[in-house]
Amino acid sequence: MKKFWRVNDSAVNQISYYHILLFFICLPLDRFFSEIVLVSLAIHTFINLKKADLKAAYDRRVLVLQSIFFVTVFSTVYTTDLHNAFNDWGMQVDIFLIPLLFALHRPLVTKYKDQLLNGFAASCVAVSLVLFGVVFRTIRYFHLPLRAVYSSSFVNHNFSKPVGIHATFFSVLLVAATIILFQNLLNEKRKLARALLLFGGAVLFAALIQLSSKSAIISLVIVGYIFVPLYLFKGRKRVLLLAGSVVLTILGALLVLRYESLKTRLFSDMEADVNMNRIELVTDSRLDRWKVTLETARAKPILGYGTGTEDEVVQQAFFKHKLYHSFIHRLNAHNEFLSILIKSGAIGLAVYLFVLGYCLTVSVRDNNLLLTTCVILLISTSIAENALDANKGIYFYGAFFSLLLLSIKTSPKAHIKRQNVQSEATLTPAVTC
User: Fold this and answer.
1) Domain ranges of the chain
2) Which of 147, 161, 178, 335 has the fewest CB atoms below 10 angstroms from its CB?
3) What is the C-alpha to C-alpha distance for residues 193 and 197, in angstroms, rounded to an integer?
4) Membrane-spanning regions, if any (predicted)?
5) What is the pLDDT of residues 76-112, one digit of tens each?
6) Among candidates 348, 349, 342, 337, which has minimal Cα distance to 383?
């Protein structure tokens, strides 16, 4: 495990590195800290910018990541709500800015990728420990029984509230940190370091149970059962890993089933969201909102209603279909795919699906477990939330996808070309008579 707090480089590069490191460290905290660091990094970058550095901005991978913002800009042309459209610009401009900044610092982020990821993982462990400290201090102050740690007062949003971050996006970050620690554990030989990594992983696992985010936990299960064995293990080791994954899954399920608040959060709420045969409605389910949003999107299927129009359009649809709970609380579609379909139509949705498919293809070809995990996390979160309408979702997408894609030495096409050249070089020359 590489030390992230100390690097030997030029003064300018050290300042750049610590800016990027601090940005990753601040991800599991309130968005204010991330915004301050990002602004400072942008100022520092443009002060020290050289003309030769601009070539890095034309990397195909950068343009692919930025294309989601370009869709937002294009959809502003025909919007009926310019005020909210420019608000969307202000939020999603980081989708353009972060890949650009990372591209301008590509040699740096490639060289120190492991240190940056280790710093992020350490931050997630530290924040989780602080949150557990808040929980236990509250329990002690009010003389509550220890089992109250899994009561509704301390799970999901109530657990992450002290650091000002949405529970789902915090869970997404913790899953990424878990994969980072797991990969470090496989490569680490020192006993003390391995013990610390195991402790950090246990803390993150406990925090994930506490947060009870369905999309994050499902993503972790998919990665653990499919991609970890596929990428990292063969033969007997693969079987042992699957057995260990089953044991962890069973232990986690037993813990969840033992406490009513966790059981309600992970199972009962999910059933209520997707059950189509409910006799009585207390609140509008997520599935109800999805059906209404999809029906509304069919009116303008190609281009959508324009950037910034989602709130007004879906609120009118919710009221028309008597989803009064969603209307009163001004809920959005809670689905990034449907959100893009409303604002930018099939064209925007096609771009988003292309970005996800491109990143997944690159990760599979490169056997990049962390990038695959990030793609799975973004897909699952996009199903349950408007992932790119929230700062932390945008920061996760911009930071991790930029870092991991730009750290790959060759693009997919170059990788295929290199493989073809190697295969041709190893062919036995034909024998002629």
Assistant:
1) 67-104+282-409
2) 147
3) 6
4) 20-41, 62-80, 86-104, 116-143, 163-185, 192-209, 215-233, 240-259, 340-362, 369-388, 394-411
5) 999 999 999 999 999 999 999 999 999 999 999 999 9
6) 337
